[in-house]
Amino acid sequence: xxxxxxxxxxxxxxxxxxxxxxxxxxxxxxxxxxxxxxxxxxxxxxxxxxxxxxxxxxxxxxxxxxxxxxxxxxxxxxxxxxxxxxxxxxxxxxxxxxxxxxxxxxxxxxxxxxxxxxxxxxxxxxxxxxxxxxxx
Length: 136
Hints:
The protein contains 2 helices and 8 strands, in the order αββαββββββ. The protein has 136 residues and is of the alpha+beta class. It has one domain (31-134): Sandwich (Immunoglobulin-like). Strand 3 and strand 4 form a beta hairpin. The chain is globular, with a radius of gyration of 20 Å. It starts with a helix and ends with a strand.
């Protein structure tokens, strides 16, 4: 049985969409080992930020006051400072976001290595996501 032109067109459109999605996934590099921990990860959202910034190391601790503390050592490639937007989101056990987790904040990364640390606002935080994107 020969497929109708309409059926053939829908197959071509579906395959084109699948190819486009696969192509986008190919251009998004997998996170490095330094970008993932047991309770969170760093997501670098654009190519410019990935080209300029490297995650050297990440630490996660919960001191006696029980707030989740995440520290990241970044390394800036190149001689010029790099301005980026950073958003840190802490989540509780019910996967609810802390207040302020929706805000993007500007940060200027300087040449070489730089350590940044964030602390959850509540003691209930169990996981986090740190997102970085270019400021432009």
